[in-house]
Amino acid sequence: MAISFQQSKGQGATNAGPVTATFDATPTAGDLILVYYVVASASDKAPILTTGGYTDVSDPSSSEQYADAGADTNARGWYKYSDGAETNVVGADMAGTADGVSIAVMIFRGVASAAQGGPFSTAPVLATPNTTNGSINPAQIATAAGDVVVLMAGAAAATMGTYTAPANYTTNALLGVAGVDTNDGVAAMAFRTSGYSNPENPAAWSMSGTSASSLGITLALKEAPAAAAVSAYTHMADRAIYTGSLA
Q: What percent of the chain has pLDDT over 70?
């Protein structure tokens, strides 16, 4: 079945959280929930979700992804197959001060289950951190027919501006909600349902404002296989019908 976008939410907060993004509607069981949580700090590392059941899709060799080298962005991504009862996602309080935090969430239907080899058709790929500004260049990724390519991006800034997604990627009006503090932070997500290449090499995100650093992840969501056709056969025993006359 084709993958379809369902909804997106974004929310920001100050003082390193906590931050809550509340869904517009309860997801359907089996929907895929994607989350990107950004903290505008090099010291409040490894942001985590208070909401349970999510699997990390950031750096597979580490429990965190961040740009050090004098930069301030610190982010992680997660996914979860919905159980049909979720109403929100909560980013933990990182116990810091002066640091903006932001969560971006997108929900998709028709993504392959874990039993079908999902949710990704290939491993997520991290962008090279940009320790200068918010214009993160998403990493190239291999794709297959039916995939949906999703980009996660996050930045820290002294003066938070607006993210613009690469050409041919839609955000459904979700460019994150900045956590405006001494250090601002914003998370953003965008997706592409068709017309991508194999491999797909997205153009860079751009950001207005004065950004200190930025991070990103590229995902290729795997399409769930079409349901097998079910044929019903009704077997009727042969019946001999006597139409002659009785003696």
A: 81
